[in-house]
Amino acid sequence: MAVYTEVTEEELAAFVAEYDIGSVLACKGIAEGVENSNFLLQTSGGSYILTLYEKRVREADLPFFLGLLDHLAGRGIACPTPIHGRDGRALRRLAGRPASIVSFLNGVWPRKPQPQHCAELGGALARLHLAGADFPGRRANDLSVAGWRRLIDACGTRADEVRPGLAEELEAEWRGLASAWPAGLPEGIIHADLFPDNVFFLEGRLSGLIDFYFACNDLLVYDIAICLNAWCFETDGSFNVTKARLLLQSYRRQRGLSEAEMTALPLLCRGAALRFLLTRLYDWLNQVEGALVKPKDPLEYWRKLAFHRGVAGIGAYGLE
Q1: Hey, what CATH topology would domain 9-103 get?
Q2: Which among 145, 125, 139 has a CA at the least distance from the CA of 275?
């Protein structure tokens, strides 16, 4: 279970008493997720998500994340809404950790994403980008090009434990991407981690976006590249161009893509694949003792990276 910090009944009751959400009826740890300790909290006032932020999330970033959720919810984006205590604060401390309570969203994430899921996602991502345009907060993307360099250095030659020669290959790939990384493309708030398990559906329609704790300011089209990697590859490693086409077409109906953005997309897909390869690799080599979370295979993203390196143009993603 992805619960790193345990909470006593007494601590929880005192914490919840600082809100107008009723008294605690039940609190159960949520097994999914690897960054924070999450609980399904049921009170006499309803159902909520309680999150204790662990060491990989900087406490100084939390006002940005919670403020962004408030902003997006106010713009009609279906996302968790922070619950504010009687004193007006959404961020508090529980069991020695920063903590917050957010609204509960109904829905189920798709274990096997279908083309229609991808179409729904594309439109929702564009609406998210548009809704975030006037958010005043700023947060740099710690897991962009400079962040990849730090991860490569942190993994070092141990990368070869996962695949012989991987350390040298990662170094070469980073150097190529760093020298060609685009500038001057439209920027704004991106989710930066919009995998299927962060997107809920009800009766085939998208019902909510969750887990905004990697959100930051970066190239908007880079967020699309992350989604193409996360949603458009099949379990056998093949790329589903139909899913990609529907995702991109749906996005463009809400927010147009410039020619420069489309031209940059294959390179950005390579970068997104490298980003998740490196974070998975780091987690594989540095497993958290006592957490019953199985690290994800970093080589899945090495295979995705290989696909993007072979792409000749935007046509490989279903656009002309």
Answers
A1: Phosphorylase Kinase; domain 1 (3.30.200)
A2: 145
